[in-house]
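pls design
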């Protein structure tokens, strides 16, 4: 009786409709007894999708070379020869005096014709696999182009099965939104955000608190803004899923991250760190702790601006907010202004200009590709610019969408008015990160000159005739969210 090895390969991939290990083994054993062969050892290879190595296959080849068996029995060519490299090795075994048998088909490996038939089978099998892979990629790309994310939903979203958009998870979604807002406020380092989100109960897909890396991955994932980025290919698609984060918050997070890059993290997250500059020399006012009080200092030696104590800075902000708060006549003018604005030429002009800017950005996207093709740009320059352009396009598209939503609910407008009426109250009650958010969202220019605190409000806040409401209307939703976060102050 000729001694043979039995070689079985099974795929552990779920979709693989292949023959089970037992069925293959039975078929090989039956073939062996019918042909008068004896199986002296079994080699069983479990292929996983993740690993492509074939350790058992290699071990078997080494054993064959030492002469422990005179033949090899396999179940079927298409399974044994997943790739042609393996097949090339197998099909050469007869030259070394080792007989190759296929249990389900009869090939005569000693004849040229038999080997040719087996080779053709192997080529067809390899082509089938290649086609399958291509079809899979095609399928994934197809779904991406439809705006569907064909992988597991990121934290904050839920899977709804194949071909269906991810939906916001009612528990984790709002926590993700908070994480972005907290980080955008600049009041948190990644590490303090990690601790804060753990405290608030944010958990990953495995139900564990998020790691530092996990938090960072979330803050870098544009999926939350409605974009799908495929890292491996560098492609960005527009998703059809509901967004969790608006583009302004996303950009604020990017800015905070860029500002932190390379800088060492300060031990104290002082209230107004990074928000004020010196009005005389333009340098940042940096916080420092002295005798238990926080001071903000201009570090230019000759500058007339020295230091200002945090509580004095805070008092100036409060006084400014008191003066800026809406009164009832402001509210009335805004209500009327809003109704007029809805049908105004200004609004049409605003929509038109947004469309133009969007078209121009699309043109630039096209030109960018041309620059890559003709070699003016190298790949990494191209990727950087393409990414920032994609973000810009998404921002413009979002602005346009918000501007078109002319039916801003009366309730939303009233909420906003209430908020603007109670600005100073808001500041008094706010938690540190909310105070920062107030200052950032209301004042375009923040400086300290000598002993004077200069706070320049945004135009929409300063202009009480509400002459052009376009910049305000597109921002109301964001402002509401930033100034009166759901879990913060109730007004
Ligand atoms: Zn200065």
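designed seq:
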């Amino acid at each position: 009786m000729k001694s043979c090895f039995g070689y079985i390969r099974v795929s552990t991939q779920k979709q693989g409709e292949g023959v089970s290990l037992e069925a293959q083994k039975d078929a090989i054993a039956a073939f062996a007894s019918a042909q008068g062969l004896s199986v002296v050892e079994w080699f069983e290879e479990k292929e996983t999708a993740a690993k492509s190595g074939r350790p058992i296959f290699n071990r078997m080849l080494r054993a064959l070379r030492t002469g422990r068996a005179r033949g090899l029995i396999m179940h079927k060519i298409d399974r044994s020869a997943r790739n042609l490299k393996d097949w090339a090795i197998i099909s050469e075994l007869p030259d070394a005096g080792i007989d190759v048998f296929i249990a389900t088909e009869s090939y005569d490996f000693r004849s040229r014709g038999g080997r040719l038939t087996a080779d053709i089978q192997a080529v067809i099998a390899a082509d089938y696999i290649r086609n399958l892979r291509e079809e899979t990629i095609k399928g994934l790309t197809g779904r991406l182009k439809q705006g569907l994310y064909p992988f597991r939903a990121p934290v904050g979203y839920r899977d709804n099965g194949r071909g269906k958009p991810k939906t916001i998870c009612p528990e984790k979604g709002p926590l993700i939104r908070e994480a972005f807002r907290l980080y955008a406020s600049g009041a948190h380092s990644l590490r303090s955000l990690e601790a804060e989100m753990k405290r608030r109960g944010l958990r990953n897909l495995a139900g564990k608190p998020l790691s530092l890396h996990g938090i960072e991955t979330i803050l870098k994932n544009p999926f939350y803004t409605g974009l799908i980025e495929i890292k491996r290919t560098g492609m960005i698609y527009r998703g059809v899923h509901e967004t969790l984060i608006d583009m302004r918050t996303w950009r604020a997070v990017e800015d905070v991250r860029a500002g932190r890059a390379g800088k060492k993290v300060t031990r104290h997250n002082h209230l107004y760190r990074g928000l004020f500059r010196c009005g005389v020399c333009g340098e940042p006012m940096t916080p420092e702790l002295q005798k238990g009080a926080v001071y903000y200092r201009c570090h230019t030696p000759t500058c007339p601006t020295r230091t200002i104590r945090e509580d004095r800075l805070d008092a100036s902000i409060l006084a400014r907010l008191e003066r800026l708060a809406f009164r009832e006549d402001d509210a009335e003018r805004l209500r009327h202004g809003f109704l007029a604005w809805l049908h105004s030429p200004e609004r049409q002009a605003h929509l038109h200009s947004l469309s133009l800017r969007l078209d121009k950005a699309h043109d630039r996207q096209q030109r960018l590709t041309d620059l890559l093709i003709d070699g003016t740009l190298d790949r990494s320059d191209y990727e950087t610019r393409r990414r920032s352009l994609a973000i810009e396009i998404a921002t413009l598209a979002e602005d346009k969408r918000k501007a078109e939503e002319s039916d801003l609910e009366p309730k939303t407008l009233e909420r906003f008015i209430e908020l603007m009426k109670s600005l100073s109250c808001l500041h008094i009650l706010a938690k540190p990160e909310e105070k920062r958010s107030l200052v950032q969202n209301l004042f375009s220019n923040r400086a300290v000159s000598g002993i004077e605190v200069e706070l320049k409000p945004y135009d929409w806040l300063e202009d009480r005739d509400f002459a052009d409401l376009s910049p305000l209307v597109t921002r109301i939703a964001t402002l509401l969210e930033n100034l009166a976060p759901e879990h913060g102050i109730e007004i």
